[in-house]
Amino acid sequence: MAKGLTLDDVAAFAEPRHREYWQSVAEFCADEIGDCVPPGTDDEARRRARELARAMGRAGIYQPIADGDIRGCIVARELLGWWSPLADAVFALQALSSTPALIARGSLDGSESEEDGGEAPHPAVDWARRALAGDAIGAFAMTEPEAGSDPASMRTLAILDEGSEGDPAGYRLTGTKTFISNAGIADFYVVFASTAPSEGARGISCFVVPADTEGLRFAGPQVMSAPHPLGEIRLGDCRVPAGTRLGAEGRGFALAMATLDRLRPTVGAAACGMAGRALWEASEHARSRRQFGRPLGSFQLVQEKLAQSATELAAGRLLAWRAGWAKDSGADRITTQAAMAKAFCTEAAQRIVDRAVQVLGGRGVLANHPVDHLYRSVRALRIYEGATEVLQLVIARDLLREDRAADGRG
Ligand SMILES: Cc1cc2nc3c(=O)[nH]c(=O)nc-3n(C[C@H](O)[C@H](O)[C@H](O)COP(=O)(O)OP(=O)(O)OC[C@H]3O[C@@H](n4cnc5c(N)ncnc54)[C@H](O)[C@@H]3O)c2cc1C
Fold first, then answer.
1. Ligand 1, residues 86, 179, 209, 388: which to mutate, most atoms within 8 A of Cβ?
2. Which of 127, 254, 342, 393 is 20 to 30 A distant from 386 in Cα terms?
3. From atom 26 of ligand 1, which residue's Cα is the shortest distance away?
């Protein structure tokens, strides 16, 4: 059980299947993850991430990713975030690396290849299936040293190589990808590269590249203060078959944005899970710790912190669930709702975790305390998959659209 976090608070957006799934993820977390004790080193985090990826696959935890069930992914990330930010990151990356195939091919269930006359599935589908069974680990390689918030300015190139007889057409990939989660432990990388640099975002294509492809090199880890396998990869004239391109040439950026649209509410959910854990730890402490002859929780300044956190947590969860519900109900794009959910939940979670540290006093900054671990873990969520400022631009752009003024909505 993730104390302090229940499905009842978001029941209006949940289906019966989410209640069942909540139960099974909660049991998995209690049995397989245990307490929120972080691995001590980057190497240990990498080992643990591999174990968790496999265990989650075996337990069927990735099913909502395969089903494209965003609220199911929200359930998983709320609970995993509560129990273990590392486990949450593992789930997140299996989703990020599988969802482009799901979007581009319509499903991962194999029906498409049957319709095509039993052809082998697209390599991206094959990798996604393996990832979701727990047999492979994926990574999503978009960011570059000079292209972070503005990924359309990426410099990685994919040059078409027409091939020759006996050597079919392919692409040669050259560039550097940085801040890549699972770099060094991934079995495959979903790589974004430009096939037409003069066309900006419309020139970007998507490729699925096995980690052992010649020319792809793990350049080394980027070690975070909160354990999370992160690193850089270099593509040095890395030749991939043309069939590894996912979607049409020039559709890669749209595929990446559609993937982020779906998954940003789940980042919000992970933030809520971490915040829910911190709030629970703070509440327990406020009940049991006595100063000035009374429990801390009897002081109104402490109560204000807890009340503010509980309210922000409830509001954040509703935004995340609302965005997930909209997508699951058939909305084509949920760009604004997803941006609101991610921006609000991650910013609120940072405040909630910070207040929890304050309520815990000195105990809250001890390295082996879960709240200290959450304090370090929650920070990155405000940056990756669209930093808050970039999401605010997305929300404002929608608000200021000319057609909004015309139809009286803004
Ligand atoms: C833990 C972690 C995991 C990650 N995993 C992945 C991954 O798996 N795959 C991947 O491709 N990338 C990943 N990233 C990279 C992440 O997506 C980038 O860090 C992010 O896009 C921001 O880019 P940047 O770090 O280069 O910052 P910059 O783009 O340089 O931005 C720095 C700051 O400036 C602000 N800023 C930028 N533009 C504007 C603007 N127009 N107006 C106002 N403010 C602005 C930003 O909000 C940010 O606060 C990860 C990052 C982290 C920290």
1. 179
2. 127
3. 148
